[in-house]
Specification:
single chain; about 200 residues; 4-stranded antiparallel beta sheet; 1 helix; 14 strands
Length: about 200
C-alpha cells in the first residue's frame, strides 16, 4: 500500500479497512487523485468528477489545520456540494490523558471526523486518517462513511473512530474536505483518493 509522507516527517499508512476474506479476493486499490497543500495553506481540498467504475472509495492522508488555541480539529466531509442538514454521524474517541468520549448528531451539516492536529499541537505533528466510503455509486441506498483517525500528541494525542451517513441516494461524484472550525489546511496536508474494485 502507498505511504504518504510530508517533508516535516509526518506520515500515515493506509492499509485498507476491509476484512481479510475480502482482501483475499479480487479486491484491488487504484489511485484516482492526490492533493497536497502548498505554501500558504488551503481553505479546502476537493475531488471532483469521481469516476463511477469502482465499488467503494478510500481516502488516506495526513492533515493539520491552523485552528487557533487548540491541539485538535476535525474534517468536515461534503458530498456533491450538499451543504444542507442531510448528514448524521457517530464517533468514539480516546485521548492520551485517559479520557474517553462518544458523540452523535442527526440531520446536521456539522458532521466531522475528529483526530486532526490543530495549531497548538507539537510542531510538525499531523493527524493521520483512513476513510472508507462504501457503495458510493449505489442509487438505492444512503451512503455510509467510516473513518479511523488520530495523532500523537506526546501524551495528549487523540484516536477517533467515526461514521457518517449521507441521507441521500445520489451517486457521489465530488467530495470536499474542510475543517470543523472553518480554518485553513496547513502546508503538507495531503489527501489521496483511491477506488476499490471487487469488494462487495
Amino acid at each position: 500500500m502507498p505511504l504518504i509522507t510530508t517533508r516535516s516527517n509526518a506520515s500515515a499508512r493506509g492499509y485498507g479497512a476491509f476484512l481479510a476474506a475480502a482482501a483475499a479476493s479480487s479486491t484491488s486499490f487504484e489511485s484516482i487523485a492526490t492533493v497536497s497543500v502548498g505554501s500558504g495553506g488551503a481553505s479546502n481540498v476537493e475531488f471532483t468528477s469521481i469516476p463511477s467504475t469502482y465499488t467503494h472509495l478510500q481516502i488516506r492522508g495526513i492533515a493539520r489545520s491552523n485552528r487557533a488555541g487548540y491541539p485538535n480539529d476535525g474534517i468536515i466531509v461534503q458530498y456533491n456540494s450538499d451543504t444542507g442538514s442531510n448528514y448524521a454521524y457517530h464517533e468514539l474517541s480516546a485521548s492520551g490523558d485517559g479520557g474517553v468520549s462518544a458523540g452523535s448528531s442527526a440531520n446536521t451539516s456539522l458532521q466531522f471526523i475528529q483526530g486532526i492536529a490543530g495549531s497548538t499541537a507539537s510542531a510538525s505533528v499531523f493527524g493521520g486518517f483512513v476513510i472508507d466510503i462504501l457503495d458510493y455509486k449505489n442509487t438505492n441506498k444512503y451512503k455510509t462513511l467510516r473513518a479511523n483517525a488520530g495523532y500523537d500528541g506526546n501524551g495528549n494525542g487523540y484516536r477517533v473512530f467515526s461514521s457518517i451517513l449521507w441521507l441521500n441516494t445520489n451517486a457521489i461524484n465530488s467530495i470536499k474536505f474542510t475543517q470543523r472550525s472553518g480554518n485553513t489546511w496547513e502546508q503538507y496536508t495531503s489527501f489521496a483518493l483511491y477506488g476499490i474494485k471487487g469488494a462487495a
